[in-house]
Amino acid sequence: MTRAMTPPRNPKTTRRVSRILMYVLLVVLAICMSLPMIYTLSTAFKGTVFVFEYPPQFIPKEPTFANFVNAWQSNNFGHYFLNSMFTASMTTIGTVAIAATGAYAFARLNFPLKNVFFWTYLLFMMIPGMLYIIPQFLIAKKLHLLNSLMGLVVFYVAGSVPFHTFLLRGFFQSIPGEIEEAAQMDGASRWQVFTRIALPLAMPALGTSAIFAFLGSWDEFTLALTFINDENLRTLPIAIRLFQGQHTAQWGLIFAASLIAMVPVVVAYVGFQNLFIKTVNEGGVKT
Amino acid sequence: MTTARAMQVQKRRQGRRGDALFALLLVLPGFLWFSIFNIYPAVYAFWISFHKWAILGESEWVGLQNYLRIFSDPIILIALRNTAVYALATIIGQIAIGFVLAVLVNQKLPFMKFFRLVYYFPVISSWVVVSLIFIFLFNSEGLVNFILVDFLHIMAEPKAWLTDPATALVAICILGIWKGAGWVMVIYHAAMQGISSSVTEAAEVDGASPWQVSWFIVFPMLKPTTLFITIMLTIGAFQSFIQFYIMTGGGPNNQTEVFLSYMFTQAFKYLDFGYGSAIAFSLAVLVVSISLIQQRFFKEGA
Amino acid sequence: MNAPVRTLILGSLLLAGVASAKTTVTFWHTYNTDSTENKILTSKIIPDFEKKNPDIDVVAQQIPYTEFRQKMLTSVAGETGPDLARIDIIWTPEFAQLGALEKVDDMPGFKGLKSQVFPGPLSTNVYDGGYYGVPLDTNTQVLIWNPEMLKAAGISKPPTTMAQFKTTLEKLQKKDGNKITQYGFAVPGPYNWFLLPWIWSNGGEITDPKVTKATGYLNSPKTVAAVQTLVDWYKAGLISPSIAGSGLGSWEGMGAGKYAGSQDGPWAFPSLQAQYPKLSVTHSPFPSGAGGSVSVVGGENIVLFKSSKNKAAAWKFLRYLLSKDAQITMATTGQIPVLKSLVNDPYIKGHPYYGVYLKQLSKAKARPPHPAYTKMEDLIQGQFQEIFSGKKTVQAALDEAAQKVDAVLK
């Protein structure tokens, strides 16, 4: 719409019209965006017989909870859920702790080879890590990290350090430095300035970082598959994949299991939503 | 120079030296960790790329042979084309839709938290699962055909989207945009909150519509954000894999292959790790160059 | 410390002592979590074996089928593979070539085993003149029909020749204007596994018998004609679009009553029955053409890893899996046994459809056992896809495939 084509209008009417238009657009986009998820949900409520049908049915003819119950009860699913919880939580803590300390230094302090360190991180974000899997497996074997959830955590943390350092650096840069300088004048040590002033100010940013880190490791498949043999140490993505057979797959069951797996992530997102938005605003976007 | 000043300078220098030591204490643990578990494997993979690598036993040094092979491999060209199309379509699509979504959820209207969650939902869903769902949606008897043929009557015949390379690529691009638009929205939305409302309000008083304000005033102000988003999305798009692996497996006849799916085939299906590694490192060079060009482009435009 | 606690600790120490004296055998397989195969293996087969061999502990590990190769290769590179694995028969020569597998020719009792199993499946274990595994289960494809749809079209029994097959398809086709609403048959997809029986039954070939070249075989007039027949049927709407990878899948189409027949392995029946309880199904061998009625041999081998530290114990478990008891037990889950002596076993004889599969197995060929088969298969399938999407003529596509396969075989 160009200005020339817009006839002069009463601003109040304009506002009302544009508000209605906005809601229409909001709803239309919401429908488009949620269609695939609604389809997943409806498939998860269908019995096996009704998974494939044409025309596709959004509302299952005979809705059933059976897929959710079966998924949860099958073969230690709850246990795998806990394994994933443990792995993702430890990864989150490790990643945030390591990235926050590094990011603070990159944002606030000068040190030799600073740019070299930083560009190394950036560069390695651009190499696809899929091929590392064999060398990583060999290292894991040497360091006795195979077949252990903590072993997975070690690799997950390493893999997420660059992105999170990048993200948090931007945030620390955006906090005004005066408070820290004043504290230093008052005789606080650097460590105290970092832990007592900078970190508390960065809490929302750390929250954002935590959600991304949690999400990243919650979904990880390849390393978990390669490193873990013990059935008791399986994580959720593997457990879900094992519902799919060579010749057959029970889609209702797989979708129900995937939806169960999404719950913690949604809870985390909803819980942190306010914090989340505030932070990305303040820091995440500086390059 | 007075002694007092000299002392001050000396103190500051010591401070700097102390700073450096403190900074290294903060940076090195993470960097070492990263070096052992990521850089070392990367170097190892780089070494492999110069070999005809044997999983057991001695590997044969072949020099640049794996890299030269890339230039004569017709499938690499197909992968390059598909990767470029996917990157271009999804980056533009995600930024456009993500920006519109951000403008919408930035309005001070009720229910915005709900809409934000709905738009963000695809971001937090698993790639594997949504790729499977999109197979169902784009199946010839799936929902997309049903809507286009039986509901909107745009097409006369159902289409086998995923078996025709061109339409398969369209379907995968739609998945990419759908999955990522919410991420772009969150970042734009956050950045928009940083823009002082006095700027936009003044324009609205002058009679500009919210869309005009967003496009002509807000969007240019968000240039650094757009750069950050573009670089992150570029890295992501060039490393896309699961959606291709699950939805088409690179087929029919390698026509929907992208770099990583082809690398995966070479390395894990044909067990040619040397060639797979060479593909991976060539891709990295490509991504680095594109990121540098993007940064320059944004700086010149500023 | 009170008494019960002390007993508990002592008890667990004792248990630990016993456990460490045991030999652990790890066994990788690809049965999915919910499958009856998995349930029977872990609740019956392994406990039975452990009861008979108290000094051996068998740990079965599930690996997703699609990622099995990746997982296996990484483990082989790290020399931490399993002791035993159940692998697809076409992977055996490849893993043998990699040096991951133990040659079993001299293992105790191998010669006896060799004479007890079907020769077809056994042949898939040969690499470089030696045996690198033992067949564990076998299968093939036959035709699957919906008898009610046949009856409705006035067909009393499934076709046995290619000519009959075609007239059957014509009778089964139903149209609503120009739109075909019912297909007589569905070839599930443009893949080697599904097309090979049609090529072989019509007298075509993929390579020479020694698997050294494809030119003159894969693009021979007979092979071209065989594939052309399928293309013609597809274009005439006699077989469903699933052969080009579009339309409803073969099972879904049968379930929906749109396809009267299809082809598949013995796993199809139980799955179809579970998903579509109202569907009735009968089986028949492939119709015979110029080459006879020839299907393709599938199945799995069990292989012993070179890196295994418990080869003797692992071999014991392997031999147990090939015992009559274990083979019959696994047969109840849909796996066809490989022991020749079981053909006349009452369970097998009384089985509703194993008879047809066993009959077809006597006239089934194995895919070329070659370390580069995976690559060969991709090259051929790629061209099949070009053919059925209408991009290339059969001759042009198969010429190209033959040339590419030759380069791999060199």
UniProtKB/TrEMBL annotation, chain A:
It is found in: Cell membrane. Gene3D superfamilies: MetI-like. It is a multi-pass membrane protein. Keywords: Cell membrane, Membrane, Transmembrane, Transmembrane helix, Transport. Coiled coil: none annotated. Residues 81-272 form the ABC transmembrane type-1 domain. Its main location: membrane. Pfam families: BPD_transp_1. The keyword Transport applies. InterPro entries: MetI-like, MetI-like_sf. The keyword Transcription regulation does not apply. It comes from the Bacteria. The chain crosses the membrane at residues 20-39, 80-106, 118-139, 145-172, 193-215, 251-272. PANTHER family: ABC TRANSPORTER PERMEASE PROTEIN MG189-RELATED-RELATED, SN-GLYCEROL-3-PHOSPHATE TRANSPORT SYSTEM PERMEASE PROTEIN UGPE. Belongs to the binding-protein-dependent transport system permease family. This is Sugar ABC transporter permease. It comes from Deinococcus roseus.
From TrEMBL, chain B:
Gene3D superfamilies: MetI-like. The keyword Cytoplasm does not apply. The keyword Lyase does not apply. It is a multi-pass membrane protein. The chain crosses the membrane at residues 21-47, 84-105, 117-138, 168-188, 227-246, 273-293. InterPro entries: ABC_transporter_permease, MetI-like, MetI-like_sf. SUPFAM superfamilies: MetI-like. Keywords: Cell membrane, Membrane, Transmembrane, Transmembrane helix, Transport. It is found in: Cell membrane. Residues 80-294 form the ABC transmembrane type-1 domain. It holds the Pfam family BPD_transp_1. Belongs to the binding-protein-dependent transport system permease family. PANTHER family: ABC TRANSPORTER PERMEASE PROTEIN, INNER MEMBRANE ABC TRANSPORTER PERMEASE PROTEIN YCJO. This is Sugar ABC transporter permease. It comes from Deinococcus roseus.
From TrEMBL, chain C:
It holds the Pfam family SBP_bac_1. Keywords: Signal, Transport. InterPro entries: SBP (IPR006059). Residues 1-21 form the signal peptide. The keyword Secreted does not apply. This is ABC transporter substrate-binding protein. The lineage of its organism: Bacteria, Thermotogati, Deinococcota, Deinococci, Deinococcales. Belongs to the bacterial solute-binding protein 1 family. Transmembrane segments: none annotated. It comes from Deinococcus roseus. It comes from the Bacteria. The keyword Signal applies.
